[in-house]
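The protein record quoted in full:

***
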Amino acid sequence: MSSITLYSYRINEIDLVKKQENLFLDNKTMNKKEFVAHKGMDNKFFISLRDQDRKLQNVYNTEIRADIIKYATNERVLTKYAKPMLEKGQAELLLAEADLNNLSPGQYKISFKFLEEDGTSAPVFSDYNGGVICTLLVKEDANPTPVATQVANVWNQTKNINFGHAANVFTSGSFAGNKTYNFNNANHTIGIYTTGFTGNVYVEGILGLEAPSSDDTNWAPISIVNTLDRIPLANTSGPTYYNFTGNFNYLRFKYSPGASNSGSFDKILLRN
């Protein structure tokens, strides 16, 4: 039997010093490492605010502001405020999952300011050379990549009025449904891209474990608009979006131009 040991500990502890003018910071070794934030999750940073004598300072009724800055361009990309904790001199800085969505992996700088009760701001120091900058390393190795959008843009004509069928029908190949990915929910979204198209669109699903052929008789219609087994479109242009649920292993799409159709049917995008 294999066992895995996991650890929960404060890896991001930041020491900051608020000092009076003309006093040297010579009695504390402060931050000498990179702090790490992982994309795809919330990251907490625990701040201790002290004076030059290493005494913890009151952080209530004040604010500690943190600016995240690109190393290469010195551009500020995010501003956050630390939240006071119950312990004196302690504050928590939260970089939430959403805060990191638009940050590329790599090195950043964190600049800290102490906002006084009278509205003025003062630097707080992160090393004992008078520096106000810490290094932040943003990583994405724990951030899962979303499932790629599937595109239906190749169509085979499976029914033809010239061969005695009631309507022309064009059918896509098969695409993975949520059950194929073992997703916990059954939500799907499709975007239908057309230009002045009039006709019907059909969505079908199947529960079989193997990718089915286009002529498989086990395909079943999926009701998306009210209780209809089709999506009716009338001179429709641009993408139109629809949501539906169902734990299908595979999906496929069909469209049938109406008799008055003079437009085009371009593609369908599928998001699981």
